[in-house]
Design a protein that fits this description.
The structure holds 2 protein chains of 2 kinds. By secondary structure, chain A is α+β, with helices and mostly antiparallel strands. Chain A has helices spanning about 1-15, 25-70, 90-100, 105-110, 125, 150-165, 165-175, 180-195, 200-220, 260-270, and strands spanning about 240-255, 270, 275-285, 290-325, 330-370, 370-395, 400-405, 415-430, 435-445, 455-470. Chain A contains 10 helices and 10 strands. Chain B is globular. By secondary structure, chain B is mainly α. The chains are: A alpha+beta, B mainly alpha. The interface of A and B includes residues 2, 6, 10, 19 and 256 of A.
Chain lengths: ~475, ~180
């Protein structure tokens, strides 16, 4: 009993004894609390900053793409065979520069009386003034300038500005038949044929096109480089995506109000099984590179729970009787008694399922070619509904706590917001279908458990989306 | 202000209520921290961490049972988590005074709390931990074995050794009452 007295004495002495506390202890607690709050908010700012960066990056990509179009796609109207006029300009200059123009010879092979050029002048008298009358400059002598220097628009303007004078002269030249409208139309069509689609200059046009392609190939590749816009326009991309993903769940558990051993035992009873996600998504291009994705998905995390509890104790008494005979004939009997205790355990196995329906809201950036494209996505996952079924360890260790859709005292019905990040690789398999692989990571902000649960638990998930997408616009 | 009002204020993160709560329980919890720590510096860090957790998880107190008991559990759990980071040896320590008979109550009944705290802090870590959990916190040996990942028999053995070592050291510091015969 002395030990009991001693124990009780110690307990009574120390149970309610208050030790001196340093004077600055409260200030230290307040400082630490503020520091942790700041770290928490910095983490949130970092996440928001990352989202903004993705958004800005995508917007910049879209903007650079529009600029890139202007640079990489010069005017398709090429006026072949002309020396470039110095600038685009008023008619006085245009008239002067017109004198330098030497139209293709074939045009002037036609009768001049009936096919005056758009300037309304007789080309034989004016345009070849530098040479002896009657000579025609051949196209081969004309030099083709590099594309930015040729301004077909200026030539076109010159042509049409002069056109207004032409009909009157032409009417007099023809001989008085003043069908101005007919002649006007004829002049326009002649101008078009001479300057824009001259029959003999088709070869030259082809040469210009090849020059353009060569220049395009030599353009320095940039992060936002796109295909020749004439071939693929992705700004109208609108896809329906279907995917499935094998998942790996990372469970984070803590139990501030229960014994340390509770978590250890709980963890030893639970083991991870295969988890998965299936979903449908709409993907809309907001430009050549920026993409918005949303849809609906179902996720299920599976776990095996094996509860081992003592079920039976069996005590067996073993009595061993031995008789020993001595040399002198005396006998002694020795009786040994031993007790063996056997403990029987019951193992109960159940399968826990954590199910949820979520809506992803993602902003992404895609880049690449026609066959292969890559990109990344960042955004939020909003949980619409969450339900669970299974069992977990009770704090008494002798029983299990069941949970189900009807009994949600441990887990919540809505787990709130999560952050989603992924990279994707897309392969085109037909004009309408692509296949894609998208490794992702989902970070959940809130715990899955309620306030009344003996522990706090949440899951973060990593997986690999494998899917197929259908181009709803079918514009390639 | 009643305890209920203080707790409600803490739930609303009222700094004044939190300070009042701290001032009311800091002394007792410091004693708990000193019993589970190697030194006073570690005890101060433990107290700081424990109160941060108390404020963080205040919403989980359901006004069932003693609030002081709830706080004490958090402090003890925080101490055990801190101790778990160190690998404690539960080896038997050779005590050369094993032959001393059981201590009479007169030997220790005059001892003050500070003396007892000092003696407990001088115990080997394994002895001290089991002694605190069993004698003062009231956990059974099976519970202690599960918490510390040891066998119940080891827990019993550690307690017996701890008690004996304490009693022996008390005998060395024997406090004899002085009677004034005037």
């Amino acid at each position: 009993m002395t030990d009991n007295l001693f124990d009780n004495f110690i307990k009574e002495k120390l149970q309610n004894y208050a030790s001196p506390v340093p004077a600055d202890m409260w200030d230290r607690i307040v400082q630490k609390k503020e520091k942790r709050r700041t770290v928490f908010w910095w983490k949130n700012y970092a996440i928001i900053g990352a989202l903004l960066l993705v958004g800005l990056g995508g917007w910049f990509a879209m903007d650079a793409n529009k600029t890139g179009k202007a640079v990489a796609n010069p005017s398709s109207v090429i006026a072949p065979g002309y020396q470039s006029p110095v600038s685009v300009q008023p008619e006085a200059n245009a008239a002067a520069s017109a004198k330098k123009i030497s139209p293709p010879a074939t045009n002037f092979a036609e009768p001049a009386n009936t096919s005056a050029n758009a300037f309304g002048d007789n080309p034989r008298t004016e345009h070849n003034s530098s040479n002896s009358p009657g000579t025609i400059q051949t196209p081969t002598k004309t030099t083709v300038k590099t594309l930015p220097e040729i301004s077909s628009v200026s030539i076109g303007k010159v042509a049409f500005s002069k056109r207004t004078k032409a009909p009157a002269r032409n009417a007099r030249a023809i001989g008085g038949k003043e069908d101005k409208e007919a002649i006007n139309n004829e002049a326009i069509s002649e101008a078009q044929s001479h300057f824009m689609y001259p029959s003999s200059s088709l070869l030259l046009a082809e040469k210009e096109r090849r020059n353009f392609q060569e220049i395009n190939l030599n353009l320095k590749p940039s992060f936002f480089s796109v295909d020749c816009p004439g071939t693929i326009d992705r700004s109208h991309g609108f896809y329906l995506e279907a995917y499935v993903s094998p998942d790996y769940s990372l469970r984070k558990v803590d139990a501030p109000l229960t014994e340390v051993d509770y978590l250890r035992r709980k963890d030893s009873m639970e083991s991870r099984l295969a988890s998965f996600t299936v979903g449908l998504r709409l993907s809309k291009n907001l430009g050549q590179n920026l993409v918005f994705r949303t849809g609906i998905q179902y996720s299920q995390i599976n776990e095996k729970f094996s509860f081992r509890a003592e079920d039976e104790r069996r005590l067996t008494t073993i009595v061993t009787i031995r008789t020993i005979t001595h040399a002198d004939g005396s006998m002694i009997t020795v009786r040994d008694t031993s007790i063996i205790e056997q403990i029987g355990y019951r193992v109960k196995t159940s399968y826990n399922k954590y199910k949820s329906i979520d809506v992803p809201l993602l902003l992404g950036c895609e880049f690449g070619g026609e066959q292969w494209r890559g990109g990344f996505n960042l955004g939020a996952i909003i949980n619409l509904s969450s339900w669970q079924q299974g069992e977990t360890l009770d704090t008494s260790y002798s029983n299990t706590l069941p949970f189900s859709k009807d009994n949600q005292t441990i887990f919540k019905k809505h787990i709130g917001l999560g952050l989603y990040g992924s990279v994707n690789l897309i392969r085109s398999i037909s004009p309408s279908f692509d296949v894609f692989a998208e490794p992702y990571f989902r970070y959940n902000f809130s715990h899955l458990t309620t306030n009344t649960s003996p522990f706090n638990q949440k899951f973060h998930v990593a997986g690999l989306l494998l899917g197929v997408r259908y181009n709803l616009n079918r514009q390639r | 202000m009643t305890e209920y009002e203080i707790i409600k204020g803490c739930l609303k993160e009222d700094i004044k209520c939190q300070r009042m709560l701290f001032e009311q329980y800091a002394g007792k919890m410091m004693t708990v921290c000193l019993r589970y720590s190697k030194d006073s510096m570690e005890a101060e860090d433990l107290l700081q961490e424990a109160f941060l957790r108390i404020f963080k998880y205040m919403h989980q107190f359901k006004f069932e049972g003693s609030f002081e008991g709830w706080i004490r559990r958090i402090v003890v759990n925080t101490a055990l988590k801190n101790i778990a980071r160190r690998k404690i040896q539960f080896a038997e320590v050779k005590d050369y005074t094993e032959g001393i008979v059981q201590t009479e109550s007169s030997a220790y009944s005059n001892m003050g709390e500070d003396d007892i705290m000092k003696l407990i802090s001088e115990l080997p870590e394994g002895y001290r931990l089991v002694f605190n959990l069993n004698i003062i916190e009231g956990y059974s040996h099976e519970e202690i074995a599960a918490m510390l990942d040891i066998q119940p028999a080891t827990s019993r053995s550690q307690l017996v050794k701890a008690r004996k070592m304490l009693q022996n050291r008390i005998m060395k510091l024997q406090k004899i009452p002085v009677h004034d015969d005037r």
